[in-house]
């Protein structure tokens, strides 16, 4: 990464940016493509993944996921070069000039036009504007992480600096601003650019801003996210104490937003009472989510890997002796897999793939996921159902069906007075269903053969035509319907045979692209006002097991298909596992409908085996100690056959173990002088139950700890792929006086206020040198007392705190403005244990704060010292026994 443009603007290039987005295009390079190492591409993968649902779709999802769908150009090697552009040179708007074999994706699909015209999601007069906006690239958008230490600095830099400098780059014919805060997002924290992501990448004049976005995104100070995708978490009205379930969470942009909200008012050294459980069925996408949310450094997150429609329900006690505790949530985000046609502007290959069957195929899964979400929601809690699709079969039809099934126990909320400034349209009350080229206005017209694919709940009334008429639903046809304009094609259809919903679906919200130059989205906000009817409640099909001599009863939810399949695999392939897991298997036997040893039903077994082999592929990245803390593989070993599989209930996933080794905990407390006010007991966990070998120790919040305890008591129903904040890491130390565990950078912010030993206070000059050169000899410190104090510390990990400007007292109280880094005290020098990107960011932010002119020069020195260090050629100072590169926070490349 190269930052050269912080000074004067680069010399003009022969590119004129026309902000009129009709002229914007994006293009991609295949087959090599852009790869996932670029975090900016994460968002396009979000779009790329929306299709698909259960296990069988796993591979397709992953295939889509690997493709960059940000672009409207594709490569055609056989295509003759187009005529030269009159300007004589390549432009951002005309990538074919750069590479004559590029040609645009077709941004049209007659089936799409016909479908949405018929559904009348926009009025006839608006159609042209709607469709032409859909064909334009999506303006880039991002969010400042409100809980980041430098969020104020970043907002101010945007408002004061970039808003002006970008304006100068824009040749804006429509008077639109080059960059503006989204009016509906609180606190000027979300911004929309009038440039597409392609323009940002390709235009040299925007290079500095692009670098800024990349760097801040990597650090976690900002998150690049489509504007409309930021809406659902806002409608959840989250409070810091809420327990939140994000049912289909990967790649995690909304999870990150939810975590930001619960951490909003947290002071250093404190944790909020709330937590987020982020779940996704796809283990690889879970890893992406973990990578994304790692930037948040939170102890209040659990990542799980379940089919959302079978998310385990856990309840404990209730026998009078033990207080009943249940895993229920104050808030549920149900951002379900969908056809994704609302993301056409950033994923234009959907134009080619789109067909009406995509939405139909997902409807039942969407209903099942939403119903499970409502079952897991506390009475009084809110659930947001959302999709990035415009299709009523995936939207209003799903909401209508869950309202019907809940029989009045759930209310669709009118949130029209929330998020002022967000332009949204009311939900539809009537729509049609398309199947194999035919339109159906009522379920009764669907042939018997097609009734397995086209179900009643896809229709507005969700009932047979006869029932609809009896209920007088037709009276509502023109009452407040959104799509009230007469249908041309309705002339042939008998009005009396059309279905219409009697539910208040106008309370749903549809965001369409041309209202505020965005993508499309659908959102419904639901509140649970009483327990669900018995057949939909959380304890449906539960089995009771007597535990602890019958004192407690653990009600276990029905096994999901995956779990059953795994049992089959265990029994058929690994006798060792059978031996070790006899209890688990016999428990499962009780619960399962699938005969485990009986081959009578070979079909079932075949189906299961298919699921298993898919799952095997997915789990090529086992979540074990050989992966980094995110479950992203960092070693070469295929761990699938590791013994660890036998330790946990979930194949390929290391068990979560409370870390209770008192010798190690006490050594940490003594070495760092950890105050008794910082609760360690019961808050430390590992993924490896051999305590002598524990490499990383994670800290979990009280709320997470309680869920872990509950989960352990009921036999580990939750398949946890990641949790906790990495706080300590094992360190190879030669000196016996040193502690074998160092504090990790992400853990420092939490534990720092409770440390009383191994702390140094540095003036800016020395702090700056540390960041720039990564290691400084004691004799080289500008502040010689600092050098002496550093030399007097015990060898090993220590913390260096920046003196607040003008304050040289060492009696500093940690507050939100305290800046501290983890270092290593060697024989003759101090070296930092901060990743190069974090060091760079910190250096820049500090120098900007202090009004230093030549930030670029400092960054250059830093980059050179990192290069030297990485190459291990000539370290800037004496080499310490600690390999700082190895000890640095691992840079995970996805
Ligand atoms: C629309 S995306 C979610 C986007 C995510 N909420 C965000 O903001 O980053 C849908 C996700 O659902 C997941 N998914 C598909 N079927 C699922 C199921 N049955 N249970 C849980 N997750 C599922 C997909 O893997 C995908 O990651």
UniProtKB/TrEMBL annotation:
<dbReference type="GO" id="GO:0005634">
    <property type="term" value="C:nucleus"/>
</dbReference>
<dbReference type="GO" id="GO:0016428">
    <property type="term" value="F:tRNA (cytidine-5-)-methyltransferase activity"/>
</dbReference>
<keyword id="KW-0949">S-adenosyl-L-methionine</keyword>
<feature type="compositionally biased region" description="Basic residues">
    <location>
        <begin position="56"/>
        <end position="66"/>
    </location>
</feature>
<dbReference type="GO" id="GO:0000049">
    <property type="term" value="F:tRNA binding"/>
</dbReference>
<dbReference type="InterPro" id="IPR001678">
    <property type="entry name" value="MeTrfase_RsmB-F_NOP2_dom"/>
</dbReference>
<feature type="compositionally biased region" description="Basic and acidic residues">
    <location>
        <begin position="545"/>
        <end position="561"/>
    </location>
</feature>
<dbReference type="InterPro" id="IPR018314">
    <property type="entry name" value="RsmB/NOL1/NOP2-like_CS"/>
</dbReference>
<keyword id="KW-0489">Methyltransferase</keyword>
<dbReference type="InterPro" id="IPR049560">
    <property type="entry name" value="MeTrfase_RsmB-F_NOP2_cat"/>
</dbReference>
<comment type="similarity">
    <text>Belongs to the class I-like SAM-binding methyltransferase superfamily. RsmB/NOP family.</text>
</comment>
<keyword id="KW-0808">Transferase</keyword>
<feature type="region of interest" description="Disordered">
    <location>
        <begin position="535"/>
        <end position="561"/>
    </location>
</feature>
<feature type="binding site">
    <location>
        <position position="335"/>
    </location>
    <ligand>
        <name>S-adenosyl-L-methionine</name>
    </ligand>
</feature>
<keyword id="KW-0694">RNA-binding</keyword>
<dbReference type="InterPro" id="IPR023270">
    <property type="entry name" value="RCMT_NCL1"/>
</dbReference>
<feature type="region of interest" description="Disordered">
    <location>
        <begin position="873"/>
        <end position="894"/>
    </location>
</feature>
<feature type="compositionally biased region" description="Polar residues">
    <location>
        <begin position="93"/>
        <end position="109"/>
    </location>
</feature>
<keyword id="KW-0819">tRNA processing</keyword>
<feature type="binding site">
    <location>
        <begin position="248"/>
        <end position="254"/>
    </location>
    <ligand>
        <name>S-adenosyl-L-methionine</name>
    </ligand>
</feature>
<dbReference type="Pfam" id="PF25376">
    <property type="entry name" value="Pre-PUA_NSUN2"/>
</dbReference>
<dbReference type="GO" id="GO:0030488">
    <property type="term" value="P:tRNA methylation"/>
</dbReference>
<dbReference type="InterPro" id="IPR029063">
    <property type="entry name" value="SAM-dependent_MTases_sf"/>
</dbReference>
<dbReference type="Pfam" id="PF25378">
    <property type="entry name" value="PUA_NSUN2"/>
</dbReference>
<dbReference type="InterPro" id="IPR057286">
    <property type="entry name" value="PUA_NSUN2"/>
</dbReference>
<feature type="active site" description="Nucleophile">
    <location>
        <position position="388"/>
    </location>
</feature>
<keyword id="KW-0539">Nucleus</keyword>
<keyword id="KW-0820">tRNA-binding</keyword>
<feature type="region of interest" description="Disordered">
    <location>
        <begin position="613"/>
        <end position="640"/>
    </location>
</feature>
<protein>
    <submittedName>
        <fullName>S-adenosyl-L-methionine-dependent methyltransferases superfamily protein</fullName>
    </submittedName>
</protein>
<feature type="binding site">
    <location>
        <position position="280"/>
    </location>
    <ligand>
        <name>S-adenosyl-L-methionine</name>
    </ligand>
</feature>
<feature type="domain" description="SAM-dependent MTase RsmB/NOP-type">
    <location>
        <begin position="130"/>
        <end position="529"/>
    </location>
</feature>
<dbReference type="InterPro" id="IPR057285">
    <property type="entry name" value="Pre-PUA_NSUN2"/>
</dbReference>
<feature type="region of interest" description="Disordered">
    <location>
        <begin position="52"/>
        <end position="109"/>
    </location>
</feature>
<dbReference type="InterPro" id="IPR023267">
    <property type="entry name" value="RCMT"/>
</dbReference>
<dbReference type="Pfam" id="PF01189">
    <property type="entry name" value="Methyltr_RsmB-F"/>
</dbReference>
């Amino acid at each position: 990464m190269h930052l050269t443009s912080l000074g004067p603007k680069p010399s003009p290039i022969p590119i004129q940016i026309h902000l009129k987005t009709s002229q914007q295009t994006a293009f991609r390079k295949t087959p090599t493509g852009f790869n996932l190492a670029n975090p900016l591409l994460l968002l396009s993968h979000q779009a790329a993944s929306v299709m698909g649902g259960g296990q069988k779709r796993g591979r397709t999802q992953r295939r889509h996921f690997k493709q960059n769908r940000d672009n409207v150009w594709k490569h055609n090697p056989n295509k003759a070069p187009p005529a030269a552009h009159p300007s004589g040179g390549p432009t951002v708007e005309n990538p074919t000039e750069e590479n004559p074999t590029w040609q645009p994706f077709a941004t049209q699909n007659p089936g799409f036009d016909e479908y949405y015209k018929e559904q009348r999601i926009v009025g006839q007069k608006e159609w042209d504007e709607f469709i032409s906006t859909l064909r334009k690239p999506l303006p880039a958008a991002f969010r400042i992480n409100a809980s980041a230490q430098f969020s104020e600095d970043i907002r101010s830099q945007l408002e004061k600096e970039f808003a002006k400098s970008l304006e100068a780059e824009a040749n804006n014919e429509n008077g639109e601003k080059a960059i503006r805060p989204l009016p509906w997002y609180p606190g000027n924290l979300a911004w929309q650019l009038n440039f597409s992501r392609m323009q940002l990448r390709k235009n040299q004049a925007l290079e500095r801003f692009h670098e800024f976005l990349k760097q801040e995104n990597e650090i976690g100070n900002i998150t690049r996210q489509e504007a409309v995708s930021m809406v659902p978490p806002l409608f959840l009205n989250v409070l810091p104490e809420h327990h939140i379930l994000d049912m289909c969470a990967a790649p995690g942009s909304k999870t990150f937003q939810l975590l930001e909200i619960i951490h909003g008012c947290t002071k250093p050294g404190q944790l909020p009472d709330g937590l987020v459980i982020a779940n996704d069925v796809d283990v690889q996408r879970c890893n992406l989510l973990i990578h994304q949310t790692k930037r948040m450094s939170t102890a209040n997150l659990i990542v799980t890997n379940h089919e959302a429609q079978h998310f385990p329900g856990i309840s404990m006690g209730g026998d009078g002796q033990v207080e009943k505790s249940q895993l229920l949530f104050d808030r549920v985000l149900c951002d379900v897999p969908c056809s994704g046609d609302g993301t056409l502007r950033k994923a234009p290959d959907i134009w080619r793939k789109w067909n009406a069957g995509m939405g139909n195929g997902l409807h039942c899964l969407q209903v099942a996921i939403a119903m499970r979400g409502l079952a897991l929601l506390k009475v009084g809690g809110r659930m947001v159902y959302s999709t990035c699709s415009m299709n009523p079969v995936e939207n209003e039809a799903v909401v209508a069906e869950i309202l019907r099934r809940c029989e009045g126990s759930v209310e669709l909320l009118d949130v029209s007075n929330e998020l002022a400034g967000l332009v949204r349209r009311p939900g539809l009350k009537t729509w049609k269903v398309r199947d194999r080229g035919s339109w159906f206005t009522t379920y009764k017209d669907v042939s018997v053969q097609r009734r397995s694919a086209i179900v009643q709940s896809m229709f507005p009334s969700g009932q047979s035509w006869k029932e609809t008429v009896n209920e007088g639903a037709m009276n509502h046809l023109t009452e407040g319907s959104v799509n009230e304009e007469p249908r041309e094609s309705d002339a042939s259809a008998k009005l009396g045979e059309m279905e219409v919903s009697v539910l208040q679906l106008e309370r749903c919200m549809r965001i369409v692209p041309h209202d505020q130059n965005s993508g499309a989205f659908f959102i419904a906000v639901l509140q649970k006002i009483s327990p669900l009817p018995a057949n939909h409640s959380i304890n449906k099909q539960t089995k009771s097991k007597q535990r602890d001599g019958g004192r407690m009863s653990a009600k276990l939810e029905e096994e999901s298909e995956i779990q059953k399949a795994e049992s089959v695999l265990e029994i058929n392939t690994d006798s060792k596992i059978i031996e070790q897991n006899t209890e688990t298997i016999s428990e499962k036997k009780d619960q399962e409908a699938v005969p485990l040893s009986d081959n009578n039903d070979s079909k079932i077994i075949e189906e299961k085996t298919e699921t298993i082999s898919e799952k095997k592929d997915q789990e090529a990245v086992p979540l074990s100690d050989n992966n980094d803390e995110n479950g992203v593989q960092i070693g070469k070993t295929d761990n699938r056959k590791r013994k660890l599989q036998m330790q946990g209930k979930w194949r390929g996933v290391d068990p979560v173990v409370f870390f209770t080794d008192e010798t190690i905990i006490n050594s940490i407390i003594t070495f760092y002088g950890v105050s008794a006010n910082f609760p360690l007991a019961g808050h430390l966990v590992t993924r490896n139950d051999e305590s002598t070998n524990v490499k990383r120790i994670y800290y979990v919040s009280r709320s997470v700890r309680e869920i872990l305890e509950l989960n352990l008591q009921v036999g580990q129903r939750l398949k946890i792929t990641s949790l906790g904040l990495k706080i300590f890491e094992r360190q190879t130390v030669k000196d016996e006086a040193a502690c074998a565990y160092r504090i990790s950078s992400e853990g420092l912010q939490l534990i720092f206020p409770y440390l009383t030993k191994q702390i140094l206070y540095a003036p800016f000059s020395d702090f700056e040198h540390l960041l720039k050169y990564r290691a400084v000899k004691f004799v080289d410190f500008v502040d010689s007392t600092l050098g002496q104090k550093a030399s007097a510390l015990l060898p090993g990990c220590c913390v260096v705190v920046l003196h607040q400007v003008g304050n040289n007292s060492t009696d500093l109280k940690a507050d939100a403005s305290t800046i501290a880094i983890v270092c290593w005290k060697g024989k003759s020098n101090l070296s930092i244990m901060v990743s190069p990107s974090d060091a760079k960011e910190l250096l820049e932010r500090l120098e900007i704060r202090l009004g230093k002119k030549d930030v670029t020069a400092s960054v250059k020195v830093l980059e050179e010292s990192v290069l030297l260090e990485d190459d291990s050629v000539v370290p800037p100072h004496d080499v310490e026994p600690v390999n700082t590169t190895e000890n640095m926070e691992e840079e995970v490349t996805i």
